[in-house]
Design a protein that fits this description.
The protein has 3 helices and no strands. By secondary structure, the protein is an all-alpha fold. The longest helix has about 30 residues. It holds the Pfam family DUF202. It is found in: Endomembrane system. This is DUF202 domain-containing protein.
Length: about 110
């Protein structure tokens, strides 16, 4: 007996990554409006980097969905080593989020010392 939604995991994962990309894009656009008066050129740089990150997330979502669908359609016993990009995209997302967190902390300290 198969689960009622067999094969839908790849689609749900892709949609979650797309929501994340959209959230980052919206946050970056808000930052583009709010940060430059406070941080000057650094505010623009952070916002633009956020928009680039959201583009990377959206492209990763497409790639992960394609890879997941490919793996689901692979015949039993087929070699699929190296077929996915899951680990790299998760690591890249974590490192980028950490970079933004450090940048936000530096900006907060700089504003507090003014």
């Amino acid at each position: 007996m198969t689960a009622p939604d067999a094969g839908m995991q790849a689609e749900r994962t892709s949609l979650a990554w797309r929501r994340t990309a959209l959230s980052v894009a919206v946050g970056s656009l808000v930052g583009l409006r709010v940060l430059p008066p406070q941080l000057g050129a650094m505010g623009y740089a952070v916002s633009v980097l956020g928009l680039l990150w959201s583009l990377d997330l959206a492209l990763s979502a497409r790639r992960r969905y394609r890879d997941g669908r490919h793996l689901l359609g692979a015949p039993a016993g087929a070699t699929t080593a190296g077929a996915t990009t899951a680990g790299r995209s998760i690591a890249r997302t974590a490192l980028t989020a950490a970079g933004f967190a450090v940048t936000a902390l530096v900006a907060l300290v700089a504003l507090a010392l003014r």
